[in-house]
Amino acid sequence: MALAGSATATLGHELSNPPTDGISSVKFSPDDPSLLLVGSWDKKLRLYDVTTDTLKREWNQKAATLDVCFSSGNRCFSVGVDKKLKSFDVNAPGETVIGSHDDAIRCVVHAPETGQILTGSWDHHIGLWDPRTNASLGKYAQPAKVFSMDVVGHTLVVATAGRSLFVYDIRNMKETLQPRESSLKFMTRVLRCMPNGEGFVSGSIEGRIAVEYFDPSKESQARKYAFKCHRQVVDDTEHIFPVNAIAFHPIHGTFASGGSDGVVYIWDHLNKKRMRQYPRYPTGISSLAFNCDGSMLAVASSYSFDEGEKDHPPDSVFVRQVGENECRSKAKVAA
User: Fold this and answer.
1) pLDDT per residue as tens digits for the range 229-270
2) Which of 79, 99, 205, 236 could pair with 105 as two cysteines, CB 3.0-4.6 Å apart?
3) Burial of 103 by CB count in 10 Å (0-12 exposed, 13-18 middle, 19+ buried)?
């Protein structure tokens, strides 16, 4: 299915009516491959039909949005600086406040296995919520601010300040399954779980990505590794850029990374290969998302203020068509 409207051929189609301030999060619907939810610092939450380049709905917010997610094709959620977890019906204008934290909420994820919503806050807590009853199912203390988290099956992985990682079973949040120290030497900025449930990938402010596995056996832990990325050599000087975004392809299990260098890479982590590099975007990449059938990749090109206040290109959301074999691993993986 072709995207409507004009397009920048090498970058993908640029959506009309983009946010006017920093884009914090882009997420596709789990059911509809064309519906994209976008959160930003301009105090608006936007829902697009990317196939027709239509802004389907816009919700006004009282503060910046830091993260968004869907639970189904018709229900979505946002969190942010106002410390609240809010729910929205994609077909209605209003919002429902489900609960709150004592500080800004940095991340929100939906756990399909249980139907629950999880929030990670700068108040050093993980929140667990039942969106069917809008009830809190408990808050669980962390040693520091939550920077990123993701869930696969019943497994939750949380990245906090201080390079700490914590693995939980969401059916028993009172106990930590695995406390870990990040394989990366600098602050974790993003973390995403592998779709097959075997492990997770994290990115740091120092232009590195780590691939880790849940199985604690020596054989499995020997498979983990980290590598350099999102770096440029200019006039014989290496410039290092934060890794801001990671997104797994839902079919092939390879992943995309985006950095403050404005570059998106596709990686085959099982075979330790970089599969492709897309042309540079106008400014840094703040968020990435594949749609549910893997046919499109949303790229948020948005300056993330790593270098403080400065002039920068306007914020944009590009949507790339992903070819059938574009993210498919070409190497055979040993059984």
Assistant:
1) 999 887 788 889 999 999 999 999 999 999 999 999 999 999
2) 79
3) middle
